[in-house]
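User: Structure tokens for this complex, please. No commentary.
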Amino acid sequence: MNLEGTFDVRAPRSLVWEKLTDPALMAGCIPGCEEIEQLSATSYRAVVQVKVGPIKARFNLVTEVTREEPPDAVYSATRGEEGTRASVVSADSVVRLAETNPGETSVSYSSEVSVTGRLGKFGLGVMRKKAESLSLEFVENFKKRVEPESAGA
Amino acid sequence: MSRLLHRPGSVDEALALLAERPEARLLAGGATLVAMRNAGLVDASAYVALDGIAELRGIEQLPDGGLRIGAMTRHRETATCGLLRDSLEVVRRAASMIANPVVRNMGTMGGSVANADPGADYPAALVCVDVELELAGTEGRRRVPAAAFVQDWYETALEPGEILTAIFLPPPRTGRSTYRKLARVSGDYAIASCAMALTGGQGDEEIAVAIGGCGPGPLRDVGAEAALRGRLDDPGALAALGEALVALADPIDDVRASADYRLRVIPRLVRATLDDLRSERRAA
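Assistant:
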């Protein structure tokens, strides 16, 4: 499924770029993220738990940054699986940053996500709703950490 | 290796077990959870079965005329309970349309409500009759209106470590109520469903309507219902209620039907359910 969205952050583009590429900050923003670790200059490992109804899946993910165009765009490929279980998730994503006004950045993302295995039980409709609410949660967390008023308040 | 299945004898014991083992899952009737476990979808390290707790069983009438349904009451008992009459009849009828006799003998109201499947039958019926759900935690018990219980897809007001213990129904009001379910085959989850109660005298009838299967939780618009009071014979006014419910809907495409189909069917379902109640009254 394709997930797309745009959100505005009250912070300059250079700062948003810096935060988006800060693994420790991202770990606190991604819903269900239990740990995140930088493996190399361009790759990260993360453990993310996703819960839908009685099903809880804990994914071991590896994200590879495939192309960077600072401070405009970052392309990444994420692959992951859930321990010994047959659930597999993959995502090819691009995030673009545009300075709409001085000190304001518009972030747009587009991601082609595929999920197979246990969570597939719920079907694409519910998965999409779930992904949308997780995206909203991420945006809220990210803004809280990056926008000036609340930062360190 | 620690025990897989725990069978506490009281709610307090069950709460203590959950506090010690946050990964444990509550097991009500098992109609859904055991099937999911057998299919390899769920593999909790421990299960806390609630079937040994006496206070969770059965339906009783309260001094004010309202009803208390224990969370572990099986669908079959609810489907045959004579106390569920008039405005509460809709709950009895919804119970009688759940799945098949095997599931109705196993499944419980608390289990179904806590699982919050959008296509399940109880949610719309319970929202239509304004029940309150009692949630027990280590800090005590609290009540949540059914309309505020489902918060997102498969997400409810239950906090980790809490147990849904009882469903409190208001006293029945004189009138009629029913549940109409649109499903691919009898016993399937609903594509969409409509719970409706008609109370009050002729010419001044009050309507309560909740739609199931068209969002994470049931849809209800109390304001639009009030605007329809005494005007149920006005097709335009009835259509306005249908449209108000469509505006609240957030359906998905799934194997049963498309989101678009669900949106189209809501106003028709409201009309058809009202016709059901009307023809029952004429026949009575």
